[in-house]
Amino acid sequence: RDWLGSPPKEVPRLHVLALELSGPAGRGLVAGLPDDAFEHDGQLTKRDLRASALARLAPSPGQHLWDVGAGAGSVGVEWMRAHPSCTATAVEADAGRAERIGRNADRLGVPGLRVVAGRAPDALEGLAPPDAVFVGGGATRPGVLDACLEALGPGGRLVVHGVTLETERLLADAYRRHGGELIRIAVETAAPIGAFTGWSPARTVTQWSLATSPGGA
């Protein structure tokens, strides 16, 4: 019932409450928040690449993600935004970036994201088992990829990004040994060239993804 002034003293147990919100629209829950939604120092999985990774990580209710070499924490943040019961642990070796991840998580509505300031693979020991793992940095560090693969249970998903030739060789070898999907993603953005407009390319990213079978890897 509509009223003017103070609300009624008694409200029926069964009732409908309608809210009319003012101001700009909120951010949706579909993967791919704008890059400027995150505080970062350039170490950020960019929007289009992030959306591609999350499509393969497939956030599902109640599942847990490891975001390894998390940078700004964008993948872990978006994983948790997919459903209130999704959880994530962001592992980042740089202490300043680790603090920044916490601020991004708070500002974007997922303060429960756990941040571990440490370097993989050692920092992965003792963490809650993951249902999915994203490696955004540090894949060439000895033991990182093996530790992530070993941690995945049946039906797990792994996505690894690389921009260097060294990481690309590592991922090509992993694809040869384990299968999965190996793709290269090149994104170009329209930008001014004098009085005209042209394409400004970002670094090409190699992406390896793997889904373990329901019976194990």
Automatic annotation (TrEMBL):
<keyword id="KW-0169">Cobalamin biosynthesis</keyword>
<comment type="pathway">
    <text>Cofactor biosynthesis; adenosylcobalamin biosynthesis.</text>
</comment>
<protein>
    <submittedName>
        <fullName>Precorrin-6Y C5,15-methyltransferase (Decarboxylating) subunit CbiT</fullName>
    </submittedName>
</protein>
<dbReference type="InterPro" id="IPR029063">
    <property type="entry name" value="SAM-dependent_MTases_sf"/>
</dbReference>
<keyword id="KW-0808">Transferase</keyword>
<dbReference type="InterPro" id="IPR050714">
    <property type="entry name" value="Cobalamin_biosynth_MTase"/>
</dbReference>
<dbReference type="InterPro" id="IPR014008">
    <property type="entry name" value="Cbl_synth_MTase_CbiT"/>
</dbReference>
<dbReference type="Pfam" id="PF01135">
    <property type="entry name" value="PCMT"/>
</dbReference>
<keyword id="KW-0949">S-adenosyl-L-methionine</keyword>
<keyword id="KW-0489">Methyltransferase</keyword>
